[in-house]
Batch of 4 targets.
Target 1
Amino acid sequence: MSEKNERNERNEKNETKTLQKSFFAPLLGWKALFEKPVTIRVPKEKREAAPRYRGFHINDWEKCIGCGTCSRICPTDAITMVEVPDMKQEYGMKPQRPTIDYGRCSFCGMCVDICTTGSLQMTREYIFFSHDANDFYYAPTERGLLDKEPSEIKVGWTRDESSELLDLDRILPDAMESSERIDSFVEFVKAYSKEQAVAEAARCVECGICVDRCPQHMRIPEYIKSIWKDDLKDALKWLLKGDEEQSNLGANPLSGVCGRVCTHRCEEVCTISHRGEAVAIRWLKRYIVDNVPIEEWNDAVSFDTSKTDKKVAIVGSGPAGLSAGYFLASMGYDVNVYESMNRPGGVMRYGIPKYRLPDEALDKDIAFIEAMGVKILTGVAVGRDISFDELKNRYDAIFISTGLTLGRSTRVPGSDHPDVVQALPLLREIRDYLRGEGPEPKIAKRVVVIGGGNVAMDIARSLARLQKMKYGEVNVTLTCLERTYEEMPADLEEIEEAIEEGITINPGWGPKEVIFFPDEDKIKGLKCVKCVEVFDENKRFNPKYDESQVSYFDGDMIIEAIGQAPDYSYLPEEWKAKIQFVGPRILTNNLRQTQIPWLFAGGDIVNGPDIIHGIADGYWAARGIDEYLDSNGNVEK
Amino acid sequence: MMNSMNDASVSQELQKVFEELKSMFGSCEAVHIDARQYKLIVPSDKTLGMLTYLKSIGYSHLSIITCVDWIDEKKFELVYILFNWSNGATFLVSTFIDRDRPVFYTVKDMWPTAEYYERDVHEFFGVEFEGNENCKKPLMLELWDDLPPLRKDFDPLQYSKEHFPDRTYEKDPIHEARIIRGDIEGDIEGGEIDG
């Protein structure tokens, strides 16, 4: 065969093959007619979505706190917070839940990524039909859009490290180590730097749950936002003027003080604390006050006041008294504050130790209050230097905020010895001594403190410092009825710091008697018995002891810090009889008005010991006094 | 093939590439991502040269071109992701261009698919690619009338509110949710649920 023939033959063969293939090809396709379809027959058949699918939302209503962060981050305005009727109202949550409009939602998942509690999630569900547009607007619950058993719902998109939108870790201000801070009374927590403050401010999600919790309802999200924008004058305005549209609600003339020693209930409810550490609201407040020079305060904060000819007297220059004075002055009243001590400030000056609240910080706040026109008359004790009736004659209204100035004694055998002393007078002496205005108080080498509250911590830590400065070592034992650190009324932070500073804490012991050296008028220590229960089933203070368990704590000096009581000796019986008391506290209405129309009261004698509560009392009393004097036109003197 | 090479030998190979890159393009910053992934940050005048070279030595698959808006630095970062099928290694070639004059050169003559990636980057960031005549043709966002939507200064919430006004619904979703949760009794009106 020639080459040519060969080639031809091959070509023919190939052609036959191709022909066969193309001729039968359709038949091969027909075969598929009798097989199952490979397509998915929606909606009869469902295709499982991917594990990270961003489908319909579910929201655990028990976990959700109604903070509204999902609604604020939503880039399409699809989420609206709607109030839930009859929902229980409690601190740390708002009675509202998110509703989602699937006509707007772009299923980006940012609401899930930022959800502060983790209650809002996305499922792998994605099929839903309706002819009614209303059906695409709903409030996600545990049962989802499709109203399924929660156990049958598969969760889809879940936040992970890279999609986390919250900054969960607090920026800690620089602070001295315990070994360093125990050597002096220097304020050991340093102020935030600008970088630290701005970064900490950026962690806030502006939900405002803290505002509800703060007794004075300070404008926390607003001033934090101003820090973030680095506009400290605006931040200061929020601190000192609050909400101008709501009669300055939320203003706090003692922001420098509260920025250091506030009980910061706001931080306890901070929405970030559900998954991380609360925003350091207190330290941020301090940052504002510390970083606007006092000369600039007038620029930032001014009130439009028209002077009235009414005069108000305030008894006591603690937080409530100064706050009332500030707000009354801002309304144009002539305010005189009477203070029996040599310096203004009350508990802020004489109770709280210098290492937590230095005089300069308090002085800055008070300087501005005085600049508002409040006159503080120090060293003038009402009842001693001027009678209460004299005040009544001279002024149109009186606000009393005299605080808790008397200590309580355990009254155990031996507690009448001069070396068994009360915490409050000793704290006063220590502060006077440290500012060079008094003699050195007695500093024992071994001290036993009785009490589990913040005052007990203050005196224990103050004495520890004095011991260290004088003898080079700390020997302070603290004992209290409460059986655990959690049960103790002191802040956990205080307890931790006290332990770091070398103070021994023995919770769960009740004092029995003071032990003396034989034949000597010298204290050897304190005998205690085991406390098995502090509160009874009605939650009343009613400690029970196991007398068989005994403990001895060595000390040359014993400090009692078991609570304080008010001193009403300045009030004449005539007026005292007309005031209604609840236990040791005075009962007032919402505007802090007592049963005597011209007499208002606030602070510890009305609401118990808490600075920010006292400030709120001062605010409401100022409004009450204003209302009272306004309505009375010409007040009979 | 790619799985047969272990990380160590890939890493050895990559070291060689780095050295060659250094001698050809001067210093270039290499950021380690993982054993088979490196980011190379190069000045924009050397980017095309480096892409050409990497393509010639096997990093020939252009996975995507993308962009990052560094608004505070006033820069756009262009990122070319190149993959090598023979060793499974990836280079992210990154370069920074002026955000106020966002123009770069096309690579569609090296990779025809780049035409679409460049259109995508143009549409979402506003970067122009000289030489790509289709660059400004809409790809997904037809009739777009606002800032490119992945620029940091684009406000999606405002856009959403302006273009899609709120509608009112004739129902109380919270009331419905409380019935669904069993908090209160009642009937839910409205469409059948689930398909």
Target 2
Amino acid sequence: MTLRGKTAIIGAADTEVGVIKHMGATQLCVDAILRALADAGIDKGSVDGLVTCNSMAEPYMYHAEAIAEYLQIFPRYCVSVGAGGGTTFTALHQAASAIASGICHTVVIAMADSLRSGLSRERALAMQSSTGHAQFERPYGATVPAYYALIAQAHMHQFGTTSEQLAAVAVSARKHAERNPAAQMRTPITIEDVLNSRLIADPLHLLDCSLVSDGGAAVIMTSSERARDFRQPPVYLLGVGEGHNHEHISQAQNLTTSAAVESGQRAYKMAGVGPRDIDFAGIYDCFTPVVLIELEDLGFCLKGEGGAFVAAGNIEPGGLLPVNTHGGLLSHCHSGNPGSMFALTEAIFQLRGQANTRQVTKADIALVHGQGGIMSSHCTIILGRESGQ
Amino acid sequence: MNEMLTRNIPPITAETAEYWASCARHELQIQRCLECGTCQFFPRIMCTACSGKSLRWVRASGRGQVKSFTIVRRAVSEAYAAEVPYVVALVELEEGPTMMSNVVVGNVDEIRIGMPLEVVFDDWPEGVSIPKFKPRMV
């Protein structure tokens, strides 16, 4: 059995993002769901599946159950997933599998957190200190940017990638965000601005790092047979693939090639398309070097040429492969585990032709890719306007 | 004690007790598989190469090289703030496995990928000895 074209997304919505002081993480999650239900034009009573991920600011023992209880819905499929930034797309994979196998027919996938406003400074620091292996990594005082800097340094050493090329990723994200009124950071920046921002963990400067935000998003998925009955044009899931390589970066078998190779190949194979068929992409951009490695591993350029590919303007508005047209984690918002939800909802808005002034010219097939941990777990999703069935 | 002034002390388990006990003697130990000869780190109850269960602690040479590194300019917590800027590195041991560590070096700008290293031990007042590395003259 293949999931190709079996399921579709019929509703999608973001909450306000950025600094949201008037709502907590639970409220944001529910707000996202209510907005997605309104977008699809359906009542909460028709939801029989719920997939969420836990919040750091307002954690629950069983998060999805807590959200179902809040909404007073009583799904037959209810699960909280935990895979870091890759959570979104593994959640989508599970939801599609549940629908295709007949467990349930209408699944809400919702995630939200308030990393910016919902955590005290002490808790935020403690959270950062708790990343990495408790015995063999944490004692050495690495920060999250430092773990990713190890990857960047290796890529620079192996392929001659430069700080200017890393900076080009951040500049491109900001150019996209300038076109998105919802984005948290919209003031134009230059390569020099990135290079002149303070070093956090060499070679990463402050502007190579993603934002810290509040916000959430939700999508609603159903079977392709039912998908045409709702008010929005359906967006079909054409391919999905995962790759899992390690949990701790010191155990990575390769610092500069990730399991995005496997997740991408699996998704392309299912969808029956290749990198050249992709009109635009959402690529996980928690730190600038991640985008270079993922572009290479997903086949958009050769291994080691990510820096040159980005510096040539290919991922900018109007480029060969516009990437993160909403502004990405670097400029739109990064509220933690839900971060890549916004790349998903953006892909849906673009495929529906609803992205306003940032609408890409040709939007038939999109690829979105999430990774969690420190380049640990990867999930690639390919979406399209036609089911191909 | 102020929580933020506490360094990240390794929570020692039954599986790692031998490793930390050897560190206290200023010896770096890793596991070697008696069936296929592969050395591994972190410690495990099985060999990652052959799934064999006959693992033995052996003393590593303590020599290795920088596989990758970063210079941390913004400390992970206040307990590490006095050490900024400090080097976090992935160290490839002579025996094969990679471990994360700090490289203790006078001038952090001297650090390079491929730099030869040798182990040193930092005795923390909390009662644990942390294996770190310093540049090795060759």
Target 3
Amino acid sequence: MSTLSSREPLFWAVQRQRNRGVIGLFVVVIAFLALYAYLFPGLFTLGGFSKFTQNWFPLALVAMAQTLLMMMGGISLAIGPLVSLGAVIAATVMGTAFGVTGAIVAVLLAGLVVGGITGAIVSYLRLPAIIVTLAGSFIIGGIALIILPRPGGVIPAGFSDFLAGHTPAAFGLLVVIVILWKLYLATPLGLGIYAAGDNPIGAFRSGVAVNRVRIATYALSGLLTTLAGLFVAAQTGSGDPVIGTPFTLNSIAAAVLGGVSFLGGRGTMRGALAGSLLLSVMINVMFFLGFPPVAQYIAQGLIIVGAVAIPQFTGRWRRS
Amino acid sequence: MAGSTAFLAAKGLSKGFFGNPVLKDVSISLVPGRVHALLGENGAGKSTLINLLSGSLAPDGGEILMDGQPLSRLNPAGARNAGIAVVQQELSLAPDLSIAENIGLGAYPRRLGFVDYPELARRTAEVRDLVGLDEPLATPVGTLALGRRQMVEIAKALFRKPRVLILDEPTSSLSAHEAGILSALVLRLKQEGVAVLYISHRLNEVMALCDYVTVLKDGVCTADQPLAGVDAEGLVRLMVGRDAGDLFPKWEPNAAGDLLVDVQGFSSGMARDVSFTARRGEVVGIGGLVGQGQEDFVLGLYGALAAQAASATICGQKAPFSSVGAATRAGLAYVPADRKHEGLILPHSIASNLILPSLGRLNRAGMRDRSAERNLVSDLARRLTIKGDTARPVQALSGGNQQKVALAKWLPLAPSVLLLNDPTRGVDIDTKREIYLMLRSFAAEGKTVVLISSDTPELVHLCDRVTVFREGRAVATIARGHITEEAIVGAAMGVEVREQAA
Amino acid sequence: MPAPASSSASGSVMRNLLRNGPFLTLLLVAIVWIGASFFSRGFGTYGHLRYILELASIIGIVAAGQTLVVIGGGIDLSVGAVITVTAITLPMLSPAWDPTGIFGIVAVLALASLIGLINGIGAAFLKVPPIIMTLAMATLLQGFLVIVAGGSAVSVENAAVIWLGSARPGGIPADILLWVAVMVGVLLLLHRTATGARFFAIGANSIAARLSGVNVERTTLLLFTLSGFFAGLAGLLVLGMNRQGYVGIGDPYLLTSIAAVVLGGTSILGGAGTYAGTIPGSVLLVTITALITVVNASPGWRNIMFGGLILILLLLSGREKQR
């Protein structure tokens, strides 16, 4: 807390510097938001705002989860199944004696553990993240199917109404998560994410516990992902073992839009949040303009390619 | 003062990679308040010794002592805690973090588990001033020029208040002003009783700064003595172990043939508006400080980098070439400086690497002709004395033999223009001599060699002409008879050097 | 080709074999088969074997393209969507004037190859990482498919495709014969042609390959076009066996194709591997699925076994290929 409240110039100056490169994205997001607000003035009512942020919330979480890994030069193809796992755990535990509180704890714990194990495999066994998470997507999806073979389970109406009803609770939660993230980034472990992503050998030589940073980051990423699953379960009122599937792609799309490099480093959470918001607003705008729902897939595909291709195309053929 | 007892000492260190010994029975002791020079050619084992002393590598034999106590399993963390700080050539910085966050990395002051930013700002400001950085502490390191990053790296080492400071070629990317700041800093640390190990190729720097010298040659210690009373020439002899004239073949003029490379107003990458010619029978050198557009120019000739030219003819064809394929078909071949990443496919076998440029030329009925390939490989291996099984991955070879593979793979194509980028970097002396001989005989066969080199004596002894690059432009072309180290270095640094009577 | 030499001492032969992906996979298939035939009477019969091989031929053919792309240093996440495209568009592209159905097949394979080519253009010229490019392509196709098919299933009347899915010339199903042809073609391409050697080269180090005169862009285009082509071919088989196509029919083949490649010992990082390993890898995947159906375990367990197998085989054979 002290670091935030003491108004230390260095800290804030560093924060300001991190906006470099994402300003353009912010402008685009604001433009889209303005367009959306123009098309749908209901955005400024409590209900409209709540619904809008509820659609954005799970996407924002998985975008953050994916960005965390990409900042370290990793990637996860298991985001979707892990969202599903979070949803089915929520829906099965809430009906038992453990109740809502027990379910929340179970969901968050599952994310931490699954993420931590993935991180440990990637860092200690030195296997490529893409293939480990591919295998993980099978395993995690399988576990979700075993826990709940078909959609069902119990989500108390009160819980659904609180998170996904006519309240901006989801937005509030997102603000809390962002503040917690800022705090985490002000710890040595948090700054280690950048160091380990930019220059793992240099970070290791400098005394950063690179493996510990990696495992903690994967665990955190898992936590955010299952939390998205919990929210999706609340939104739909049940657990569905395959509901998370689209989130793998969406998370990568949002992270790429947010300017996260595939080579590690050079990404920011604010970029990922902006990227996910852009994606979310874009889907809404297209809906309002009367495009068929599937058109969003086409637009999404084009945007991903464009977001990666344009800056790379203008660059040189070799690494700088 | 602890007097002359060593902070850090190594006894009988040995280390090898892939069965090739790199260090053999090397001892060194670093004493407080002494600036200790470590000299040696590229590939003499200096970097390996530093990695051993800093715990990044484990020795195969010998021991490392700290304050007289043996350190059994030294790792980077242990070395740091013991007060050993290393500034390596490969920087350990994270471009996305700020100057302050980089300087403190791995040793952040904390409060309640968080990085104590006020304290970090205070402490990094101190070391920043020591190295003369004036950028704000919040500046991301990625936005700094290379020389400034080097100063951040040095500040990072000082941040931990080291007892032993190891500087590995710290001035190679520094401006003269920055190098001056560093010299003053080293002398100040010496006053404060820090033991400094100073690795440099710049002998005048070493003579000015250091008190004591250890010289490595081919992994063996050839000198370990006070620097006082030793002259620069003597040091060079200890490093090279041979007279320079012995290393290079005797230069003899070849009959100058027609122009093979003739480009005017050629621009590619950093290289701007370069005019350059080379004839059959010539070895044309390209000199200058590292990174002045030499590589981009040659990559442009080779079709690997987009290029424009007022007029350009290479091997009788209109250039610039649109692709590497077009260039190789015209008769060009290129051997990159970074053979591990650009010259060779390390995990693939020696044979696969040797065949790669010839693929498609050895086909029979659309399929690869295995027996022709085998013959080609064994022929090349014999001609370049690459011993052993050619099915081994090329990464198992020593640097010199790797370089031979990177060169040999082009021979079946019989190129008429050979573009070489620092071909002897990290290569042992015997292989160097082989490469030099090959270059000259190549030219004698009526072909053209274009040689980029960071090793000025190479240019002096091998080339018929040397073009010097500065800031992307060809600033001077020096003809045979006028090629001296002074002339090349002078042109590279923009200083007029008066020619002395020979 | 880049596999370490089969050198020297006999003691290391065993260790080399245990580090050899294709061999491990083959061993695993044999163990599973022998074990299963003890527990389940139907498992050892010729009919069942044939059925399993028919299913494996689909995975094997998709995985042929995937193997090539992975060896070339990429990955193709659009193969599932390409299979679906093939299945959905075949009826539309099979005109009534051609009773043989050959035209439809050619048109659909051309379409599949074109999709692959576009992937290749994105990867080679726009420099989009293959994983992103093909993922985006899969998303895009998903959108188009819903627009084209409108969510309903289409049934097949194309004679040639029905023949592929049901004929048994000489007692051997046509799809297995097709797979054998693919095996021969891909193995020859990879290990006996200059083009195959270039796949390995760009997969291991594209910069060094380019500087050695390999046309990296053209090779990349070829790789992705082939992957699209093979996915299209597999789509025809899927259609021939199911007799109908619907949106999502190809989805299960995406991850299984990658799993078959990895199970076969091909390095996911590119530059090393062989289709000879993917073949038993495909059979193994289908066998496990069949086994799980026989013992009535849930599909969840099947997925867990798939994932576990990939990890275990990576650990056994892929350790030295770390990045």
Target 4
Amino acid sequence: MTSATLPPKTASFAERGAAFVVRWGFIGVTVALIAFFVITEPNFRTVDNVFGMLKFIAPTAIAGLGVMLAITVGGIDLSVGASAGFAVSIAAWTMVIGNQVGAVAIGVVLLGGLLIGGLNAFLIVVARIPDLLATLATSFVIVGLKLLIVDGKSISSQMSLADGSTAPGKFTADYLWLDRGSLGPVPVPVIIFVVITALLWFILERTRWGRALYAVGANAEAARLAGIRVQLYRTIAYMGCGLLASIAGLLLGARIGQGDVSAGNSLLLDAVAVALVGVSVLGIGRPNAWGTALGAILIAVMVTGFTMVGLPYYAQDFGKGIVLLIALLFSFTFSRRRTVVTAGSTTSS
Amino acid sequence: MIESSIPEGGELATLSPVVSLSGVSVAYGSNVVLTDVTLDFFAGRITALLGANGAGKSTLIKALSGANPRYSGDIAVDGTVLHLSSPVLAKAHGISTVHQKVADGIVPGLSIAENVVLDDLASASRHPLRNAKQSLLDARAALATLGLDWPDSLLAQDAARLSISDAQLLVLARALRGTPRLLILDEPTSALTAAEAERLFAVLRALRDTGLSIVYVSHRFGEIEALADRVVVLRDGLVQHSSERPFAWHEILHDMLGRATELEQTRVDVRRGQNVVARVSGVPLLPAAPPLDLEVRAGEVLGILGLIGAGKTELAELLAGLARPASGTLELDGEPYTPKRPSDALRRGVVLVPEDRQRQALLPGWSVAHNISIPFLKISSALGTLRSARETSRAQKVIDSLGVVTAGPNASIDDLSGGNQQKVVVGRWLSAGPRLALLDEPFRGVDISARREIGDRLKDLVAAGDAAAVVLSSDVDEILEVADRVIVLVAGAIELDAYADETDRASIVGAFLGARTRDHSAVPPEGHPK
């Protein structure tokens, strides 16, 4: 028995044009924007600025990679902003009030991130609350818990406490190194960003565990019948998301240098946006690590460039919103491929 | 023309049909699911519509009820050809439908009265303010047509609180508002108890006597025997049979279950398995069914024939680790077998080709190779890293052995035809080299050549003598074509168990019939809610 072959499909010019736009449109826009700023803004093309942009966007990108994991298993996580904010305050509290070194604070925060992810997974997988609603609820709980722990206050080194004494600890150098350190010219946050992106890309694209995660998102029932432990993989994805959100929070806290209670508030929308942009990049039609990283870089270029050309900071959200809308149009409307974002149980094809 | 009867329903029946179909066909893409159906429905008559899964019953109902306007051919109401482009239009012309899932017809949160008059609430001509009093009056009038006298206090309650049989009566009352000419009922008793079904039949007989034409879809021969004036059988989208009382049940079943009127032939290559691979002992397949004992032997293809609700899928799910037996035990290779999940079954060499390809088997947008390798990620990888050469070679083997028509392992599964997708799914599971392969309706929507190909691979699988295959189907010809041993399953009980060369189609159909006619009343054996 030999396999028959099909004649190659002939696509019309319009179809091929649309496919080209879907595949290369986003990269094209990013490159064009970069070119525009490189030509018009001398400051933009410095090495410092390149690393500055990447460093600036690293927390968003890492939280976005977390959201990407949740989307990979057909869900969504709206608690990444709250988790990151929680990490900022808990790290500060551990060092300043608890008088611990940065390494301990980092350990506590990462553990907290895993626990938050575990809670989300429990609510979604075991209690069967829809992902959108469960993570919305947990983000309230996380923010509230954070405020209770820190008495609603931002924590800074040598702050005075309620009893009039001075806080025993301070932001330690090893913790601040997360933001200020660098290897050669490359800042630490950029290294963490790149390593996490590469690691997630490898896991998702090259390992059987990544394939199983994608299978759960593509057709959970088929995956289950194929022997994949669907609930286990969904739990892993949410725990991974919680962990990445807490890493984002660690970087954010080190940048701010204090336990700002409002930190992380704006992170959620950006993180979800870059994950969704990542789905559309290259017309892949499914969440992926490089795409998410590229989405984050596009936003960094936009924000930096807009600031340089003198646009007010409040114009940034408008630009981000337009980028996200275009990305969604690419993913859902123009793409011939099925898009496998099933966040909030809405499926498209 | 199939319809040649002259109705004998008394003075109410007229010689011209209420609704007549001529040359109605429906195709989804290149897949023709209803072919040139010509039928007349007369006033004051109950027509039973029969057919196995995928025979075209629901497609026909959708066209008649306006739910699928993309049909070809003519549907005429009172001799006027209309294009039934929407359910509202169909209802306006007197064609009213009660769909199978009663719960879908009830809006929870609205009162019972408002649910009865739901169509009015949606109507544009209705006053925008809800008028509880008017709804109550209208609802009472509608329920009175069924002889129901529900008190106002009940009518004001939330419709979600109705029992399933009362909800069934509610949607029936709603369907009867505006005095329809043709009433379509899709398996109306599937959720009713025997007594509730009996109550419904009394209502339906009374409605028939008022001159209503009724189309009654059911799998239950007892009900049809008790109720219908005429039986129409669909198979493969064609009208295969149409007859008046008294019904020749043997012939009806034959026409319903068989695929083609091929010459009876005794298979010469029937194998007899030796060792028992799987043993089911004392496991009830359905809540009300007796405990079942069953042996699956290595070296043979076992065909299990049964209609919807016979317990086929339940049996497959038990063995594949998707469900656990309520009581009794399972054995595999002589050892206790208690799979908790599909991966446990897989580890023991038990694989399942599930009933619903799209929902349960395919990964949309993925390549053929990735669709095939999904249960074998561990074997396809080294140190957790996937080796695409291993995936591709497994896929190529599947493509070659089953003759899958595709551009290659990297082609998207979405670009394959249904039959070729099914070959990929079957090939995926056979490539595991299973001990026991379970295939639930593997030939649905699959053309004859793909069917043969799949059947041949099953025979190859068992030929060595240490593996078994179980094909579960509602089509007697599929079973006769592929199976060495045939089991007829009715309502969770074995009615026949014989090797293919020891039995024939007539006996198999007879086994069905024996089980059905034993219960000749209007009370179906499986008529209990789950």
